């Protein structure tokens, strides 16, 4: 990540020194759009998996996670997986 941040800082210096560049602006917009699309696809995949657990246990993921985090549900493998999926989805959001 530090390597990427270094490049972004160099790009910032370049733009400050030489002015805005339409090619760079367009490229950055395309890269961001691509990453957002990939995140959206991953969020949809995770939400599909979360819905499966919600149907199986007849419980919303938020309620499940609060109970799981409080230690009220035990450490069944399904619960560990459900918790992981929930946290991954929330990080992406």
Task: Please explain how this structure is put together.
The chain has helices spanning 2-18, 22-57, 61-69, 77-92. It is an all-alpha fold and 93 residues long. The protein has one domain (20-92).
SSE map:
Elements (H helix, E strand, L loop, with lengths): L1 H17 L3 H36 L3 H9 L7 H16 L1
Helix pairs in contact: 2-4, 3-4
Keywords:
0% strand, mainly alpha, 93 residues, single chain, elongated
* Poorly predicted parts: none
Q: What would you call the shape?
A: elongated
- Into how many domains do the coordinates divide? 1
Report the C-alpha radius of gyration, rounded.
Answer: 20 Å
Helix content: over 70%
- Order of helical and strand elements: HHHH
Q: Number of DSSP helices?
A: 4
Biggest beta sheet summary: none
Percent strand equals under 5%
What is the averaged pLDDT score? 95
Assembly state (oligomeric): single chain
- Taking the alpha carbons of the first and last residues, their distance comes to 20 Å
- Assign the structural class, choosing from mainly alpha, mainly beta, alpha/beta, alpha+beta, or little secondary structure: mainly alpha
DSSP strand tally: 0
